[in-house]
Write a structure and sequence with these properties.
The chain has 208 residues and is of the alpha+beta class. Helices cover 37% and strands 20% of the residues. Helix 3 links the parallel strand 4 and strand 5. The protein is globular, with a radius of gyration of 23 Å.
């Protein structure tokens, strides 16, 4: 004959059981989010890169179709930026060096200040970072079109780009976006955080 526990003891044991299970679940979720594998639990996951056809610093055009079959990383900068843009471009330059032997790897920098950032201005900026013109593209174009591509297509926050003649500061995300061979957005990474950049390195290797 089993021992019947008081109701209060049963409730206490049930509470402890749920507490342990809850803590275990939280620990498991944290380990999953911090794992070394591909970063799939991000706002951009499951979306496709937006269609675009923009002017490259060379004066030619680059379209989304030109990047099919390549793994590529996009960043969003402007040349007269006095904030994080040069650092983001240094991160892109580091990726260019790290994956120099990967034939199907590309880098794409979208100007969020396209009225000022003409192809000639972008050429001068690109030279500062020794950007390979065959592997690292700098894109500009119509201000409204670029704004829609960046904000609506890549889900990257930008404030002020729709007012190119305004004296207000241009604010934008420091996120780098990883795109796979099929044009799907696979992750967003804070370009100012070493942990995110290490994860980006790993995820690029997985996709390559």
């Amino acid at each position: 004959m089993g021992i019947r526990l008081p109701k209060a003891d049963l409730l206490f044991r049930q509470f402890n059981l749920w507490l342990v299970l809850g803590l275990a679940g939280l620990i498991g979720l944290r380990l999953f989010l911090d794992r070394d594998g591909p970063n799939v639990l991000l706002p951009t996951a499951g979306l496709s890169a937006p269609a675009f056809r923009l002017t490259e610093r060379s004066g030619g055009t680059v379209a989304l179709e030109d990047l099919r079959g390549s793994v590529w990383v996009a960043d969003f900068i402007f040349t007269r930026c006095k904030g994080p843009c040069p650092f983001l471009s240094q991160q892109m330059a580091r990726l260019q060096t790290r994956f120099a032997k990967a034939p199907n790897f590309r880098l794409v920098s979208f100007s969020v200040d396209p009225v000022f950032d003409t192809p000639a201005v972008l050429r001068t900026y690109a030279e500062r970072f020794r950007a390979d013109p065959e592997r690292w593209f700098f894109l500009t174009g119509d201000a409204a079109a670029v704004h829609d591509i960046v904000v609506q297509g890549f889900r990257v926050a930008v404030e002020g780009a729709e007012r190119p003649k305004s004296s207000d500061p241009l604010l934008h995300s420091v996120r780098l976006v990883l795109v796979d061979r099929e044009g799907r957005l696979r992750g967003g990474y804070d370009g100012t955080k070493s942990k995110d950049m290490k994860r980006l390195d790993r995820d690029i290797r997985v996709l390559l």
